[in-house]
């Protein structure tokens, strides 16, 4: 009798549990149905704006592909072809010191109906060749002692190249040194030293930054820059006599 009642109690409890589970499940499905219904209603209500939005995205993608294919790619080739003439004069100027000034002028301004570097920057500035022309223009102006134009063109140049990007900033530092703006020179030398970590440009521009700091009588800064060369670039050319410069900077601090 006791066993029978126990089973009955268990069955009753199971039935209650099943009812609760079914009730909960029903509520979940009802909630899902309501959510789906609201979503469908929202989609129906906003169908036109959604289609317009999707169409706009599709047109933007197609436009981007078409621009690259039919505008940018031909322009890149055209710019590269135009760059050949001034690039040749620029390279000859770097190798021929006696004729460098006139060759840099030809590179910048063009000749024989050909574009110069400045023309290429003006007409193809958003291409790879146009960007390279900015760097070459900056260096050419630097060699011709036109430091303000050198700064202008080198500042516009953008590159992920290990060397060129660093040299651009370093040359801006040199240009600011030439026009007696040591604070700006120091900033660009430090930027050049930190832009890429290598055994050539990093110690070179740390050393220039240290010398500039010395000229500004910022001796603590100079000590820190010279010591960084000794610690991080011990095999570099600048490190060979860096102890002398550290000693001078520390003596200046002590005065």
Give a short summary of the structure:
By secondary structure, the chain is mainly alpha-helical.
Describe what you observe in this structure:
This protein is an all-alpha fold. It has 2 domains: 48-149, no CATH class; 159-255, Serine Threonine Protein Phosphatase 5, Tetratricopeptide repeat (Alpha Horseshoe), CATH 1.25.40. It is built from 11 helices and no strands. It has helices at 2-45, 47-95, 100-109, 117-124, 128-143, 147-156, 164-178, 182-195, 201-215, 219-232, 242-254. It starts with a helix and ends with a helix.
Biggest sheet statistics: none
Helix/strand-derived class?
mainly alpha
Order of helices and strands: HHHHHHHHHHH
Strand content: under 5%
Topology, number of strands: 0
- Estimate the global geometry from the Cα principal axes: flat
Distance between the termini: 108 Å
Q: Helix amount, in percent? A: over 70%
Number of helices: 11
Radius of gyration: 35 Å
The averaged pLDDT comes out at 84
Q: Low-confidence stretches at least 5 residues in length (pLDDT < 50)? A: 1-10, 12-21
Question: How many individual domains?
Answer: 2
């Amino acid at each position: 009798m006791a066993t029978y009642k126990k089973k009955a109690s268990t069955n009753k409890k199971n039935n209650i549990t099943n009812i609760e589970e079914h009730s909960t499940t029903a509520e979940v499905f009802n909630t899902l149905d309501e959510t789906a219904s609201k979503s469908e209603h929202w989609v129906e209500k906003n169908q036109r704006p959604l289609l317009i939005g999707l169409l706009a995205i599709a047109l933007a993608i197609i436009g981007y592909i078409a621009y690259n294919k039919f505008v940018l790619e031909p322009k890149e080739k055209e710019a590269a072809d135009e760059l050949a003439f001034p690039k040749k004069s620029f390279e000859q100027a770097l190798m021929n010191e006696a004729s460098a000034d006139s060759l840099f002028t030809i590179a910048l301004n063009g000749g024989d109906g050909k574009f110069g570097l400045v023309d290429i920057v003006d007409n193809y500035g958003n291409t790879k060749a146009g960007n390279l022309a900015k760097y070459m223009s900056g260096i050419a102006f630097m060699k011709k002692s036109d430091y303000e134009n050198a700064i202008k063109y080198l500042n516009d140049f953008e590159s992920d190249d290990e060397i060129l990007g660093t040299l651009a900033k370093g040359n801006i530092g040199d240009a600011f040194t030439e026009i007696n703006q040591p604070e700006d020179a120091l900033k660009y030398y430090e930027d050049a030293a930190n832009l890429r970590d290598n055994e050539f440009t990093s110690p070179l521009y740390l050393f220039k930054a240290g010398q500039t700091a010395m000229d500004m009588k910022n001796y603590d800064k100079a000590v820190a820059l010279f010591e960084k060369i000794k610690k991080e670039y011990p095999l570099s050319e600048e490190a060979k006599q860096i102890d002398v410069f550290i000693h001078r900077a520390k003596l200046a601090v002590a005065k």
